[in-house]
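[job 4417] fold queue: 2 targets
>>> target A
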Amino acid sequence: MILLSGGNTGVYFTPLVSETGFERLAIETIKIMKEKPRFVLGVADQVPQNGLKSLVKKVGQLCEKYGKY
């Protein structure tokens, strides 16, 4: 069994990327997860020190909205 983990690059959790850009990437990643169920969503490296907690929480909200099978 192969399991892939990752998805969202840490910089997407910082103020350097718009919230719209963040949401677009997260939703696309969630769509891939639904098609490839061996994919575990996570930050590709780590959330940087200047990462926004609100965006970390947003991932859960987007999974609830778009991640249902």
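>>> target B
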Amino acid sequence: MQHMMQFFAYEHLKPELRTVSQPFFHMAEAIMQTLPENPERTMALRKLLEAKDAAVRAYLFKSDYS
């Protein structure tokens, strides 16, 4: 499951997106270190990834998009 951590990487992002993504990386890291490997941990990481993606989209959202 370590390969999933690649999706939480944030160092390559622009500074403003780094600020949005970094807390999700640290939470994913904590999940990996503290929970036993099982389907529920995998689900937790997938849901966290969904939340990170939504947060990034929320930051990038343009209400006047045409």
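[job 4417] complete. Note on B: The mean pLDDT is 93.
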